[in-house]
Design brief:
It contains 11 helices and 7 strands. It is an alpha/beta fold and 293 residues long. Strands 1, 2, 3, 4, 5, 6 and 7 form a 7-stranded mixed beta sheet that branches. The chain starts with a helix and ends in a 13-residue tail after the last helix.
């Protein structure tokens, strides 16, 4: 997905992020694996490649998986669907959802029951009793894991927020007579060895802002949108072109959005903030930042 030039151009502001509790989550998931029948692997429709943990299969082994694709309402469906088709061709069961409207939740439950009925058939063959499906939800911060739990359980049971890493602890809750789930999802982090992926995750708020250089994220966003959706940059900021050092772009945006300090100088950090908020709040319109190679 990335090319060498882009990796080099952001090299000065590398994001390095592999927190200690990743090891802890991995250990915990490993320990619970015996109890789990099905894993919901939650990814963000605006970045279906970047938000998908590369080495997830090492972690969840041969457990049946459903790829739950959240935020379909925010993505460029045409581009996202190309990527989802590829996942399907690789054998994934893919369920795209809009967790705010609740779109496709029934499909998710139905798919879960189909997988579980196979598992129960083989349990019966072995002389074991049928049981309800036990589901573990995993995904990167901000993918929508807590919102999904709330949707499934139908009440506010999990902390939801735009800040990554809200959820901790582990216990089971019942969705319906057929399905129960771990009420605390497994929070996973992508290895940050690919800076294109790291910046995409940061741009769409899957990395804590405190550890980021916001100017570099904002410039990454400008560059990315200019490449993938130049009209959106024009519509929102009146930017026809993007200069290499971003100075003219920042000036244009600052004037347009009133981000000037007293002397009329560009308030660069305010402009960065505007760009980041605009993307986070969906003001560019439907957008997908990943592309197949
Ligand atoms: N528009 C939209 N927002 C969503 C969707 N799913 C989750 N969100 C929002 O994404 C943010 C992060 O969700 P959260 O469940 O806290 O993510 P978690 O960190 O994986 O638990 C919240 O602001 C949610 O409201 C969705 O399908 N559509
Ligand atoms: Mg959460």
């Amino acid at each position: 997905m990335s090319n060498t030039n882009e990796n080099q151009s952001v090299a000065k502001t590398n994001i390095n992020w592999f927190p200690g509790h990743m090891a802890k989550t991995k250990r915990e998931i490993g320990e619970k694996l015996n109890l789990i029948d099905i894993v919901y692997e939650v990814i963000d429709a605006r970045m279906p490649i970047s938000s998908k943990i590369i080495d997830i299969d090492n972690l969840i082994k041969d457990k049946p998986k459903i790829l739950v694709v959240t935020k379909m309402d925010l993505c460029d469906t045409e581009e996202t669907n190309k990527i989802l088709k590829k996942y399907e061709s690789e054998g994934y069961k893919v369920v795209p959802v809009d967790l705010i409207k609740g779109t496709n939740i029934q499909t998710l439950l139905k798919t879960t029951n189909e997988i579980m009925s196979d598992i129960n058939n083989s349990r019966l063959n072995k002389g074991m009793k049928e049981r309800s499906a036990r589901v573990l939800i995993v995904g990167v911060p901000n993918a929508g894991k807590s919102t999904l739990i709330n949707r499934l359980v139908g009440r506010k049971s999990a902390g939801v927020g735009n800040t990554p890493g809200v959820t901790k602890n582990l216990s089971w809750i019942r969705v319906n007579k057929d399905i129960e789930l771990l009420d605390s999802p497994g929070i996973l982090w992508q290895k940050m060895d690919n800076q294109e992926i790291a910046h995409t995750l940061a741009a769409l708020s899957s990395i804590k802002e405190e550890i980021l250089n916001l100017d570099s994220i904002a410039c990454f966003i400008l560059k990315k949108i200019y490449k993938l959706y130049p009209d959106k940059l024009k519509d929102r900021y009146g930017l026809e072109e993007l200069d290499e050092d971003f100075i003219e772009a920042y000036e244009t945006i600052a004037r347009r959005r009133g981000a000037l300090s007293k002397g009329g100088r560009v308030d660069y950090s305010r402009v960065s903030d505007i760009i980041i908020r605009d993307l986070k709040n969906g003001y560019f319109g439907p957008i997908t930042l990943d592309r197949l190679k």
